[in-house]
Amino acid sequence: MSRNDRQNIQTFVGVVALIGGLAALWLASVGANDEQIRFTMRESAFIAFALYVVVLVARPLQQLLRKDWTAKLLRNRRLLGVAFAAAMTAHLGLIAYRFGTQPELEFSPDPFGVGAYAVFYVMLITSFDAPKKALGPRAWKLLHRIGLLYAAVIFAVPRPLETVTEPEYLRYGIPFAIAVLIRFTAWRRSSRQDS
Ligand code: HEM
C-alpha cells in the first residue's frame, strides 16, 4: 500500500473515531434524547463544513499569498478532503443512531442528501492512488469540482431566506462568503496575469 493510501485510511479512521467518540461522550453526559442527538448531528455537519471551507481555499490562498503555511495547506488538501468525508460519515453514523434508537421516527431521507453521500464516497474512493489513476486527471478534476459545488449548494442553501441572519446560519454563511471571495480574488488575479 502506498504512503498516500495509508495516510488516507489513518485520517479517515482517526476523524470518524474522534467525532464519534466526542458525540458518544456528550450523549452519555447529557442524555441521549432526540434534541441532543440532533445537536450532535448539527455539530458533526459543522465540523465537516469547516473542513470543506479549508479545502475550498487551499489552492487560491497559495496562489495569493505563497507562504510556507499556505504551501503546507495545499500539500495537505487531499487529507483535508478525506477528513471531510470522515466527518460526513460521522454525521451518517449519527443519523443511523437516531433512527435506530427511535423507531417511532419516520425515516424519509431527502434524495438530494442521499445523492450527496454517493458523490462524497466516490470522491473519497478516488482519493486513493489506484482509483485516481484509473479515472484519469480530467475526469478526476471534474468529479471533485462537481462534488465541491454539490456540497456548496447543501451548505449554503439549507434554509428559507428569512432565517439566513440567524446566528446558526451565519456560522455557515460568513465563512462561506469569505471562501468565495478568496477564490474570486485568486481567479481574477490569474485571469489578469493570463491576458
Ligand atoms: C440522508 C441524508 C441526511 C439526513 C437524513 C440528514 C439529517 C440531518 C438532521 C436530522 C440534522 C439535524 C437537524 C436539526 O435538528 O436541526 C442535520 C443537520 C445538518 N445536516 Fe444533515 N442529513 C443528511 C445529509 C446531509 C448532507 C449530505 C449534508 C451536507 C453536505 C448535511 C448537512 C447538514 C447540516 C449543514 C446540518 C446543520 C443544519 C443546521 O444547523 O440547521 N446533511 N442533518
What's this, in brief?
The chain has about 200 residues and is mostly helical. About 85% of the residues lie in helices and about 0% in strands. About 20% of the residues are buried.
How would you describe this structure to a colleague?
With 195 residues, the protein is mostly helical. The protein has one domain. It is built from 8 helices and no strands. Helix 1 (3-30) runs antiparallel to helix 2 and helix 5 runs antiparallel to helix 7 (137-156). The longest helix has 32 residues, at 34-65. The structure holds protoporphyrin IX containing FE. Protoporphyrin IX containing FE binds at residues 38, 41-42, 45, 49, 91, 95, 109, 113-114, 116-117, 151, 154-155, 158, 168.
Global geometry: globular
List each distinct ligand once. protoporphyrin IX containing FE
- Alpha-carbon distance between the termini? 44 Å
Uncertain spans: none
Q: Specify the helix fraction band.
A: over 70%
Note the main sheet: none
> What percentage of amino acids are in beta strands?
under 5%
Order of secondary-structure elements: HHHHHHHH
Number of strands: 0
